[in-house]
Inverse folding.
């Protein structure tokens, strides 16, 4: 059986039709600030990222249907925002609260 060839790096120049080469086009400094991740159990996500040592920036709710937490990793300018909303998330949140209360007794 033949042995696979080793991968070789390409030395070919890559050409693009990059619009930024045109002097009339301005460059815009773009930065990622927040990434939103939907979760079914916000308390579980909060516990996980808190144990990683991430900074909690926000934790707010609007009624029983909507809750948001936001964490930022140490030294990062990008926050991770976790949202839950709707009937399924509400029941998960209530179950989690009930478990927390039972653990404290």
């Amino acid at each position: 059986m033949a042995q696979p060839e080793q991968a070789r790096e390409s030395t070919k120049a890559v050409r693009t039709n990059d619009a930024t080469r045109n002097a009339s086009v301005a460059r815009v400094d773009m930065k990622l600030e927040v990434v939103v991740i939907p979760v079914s159990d916000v308390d579980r996500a909060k516990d996980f990222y808190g144990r990683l040592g991430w900074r909690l920036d926000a934790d707010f709710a609007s009624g029983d249907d909507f809750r948001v937490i936001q964490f930022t990793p140490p030294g990062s300018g990008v926050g991770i925002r976790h949202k839950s909303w709707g009937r399924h998330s509400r029941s998960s949140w209530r179950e989690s609260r009930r478990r927390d209360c039972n653990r404290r007794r």
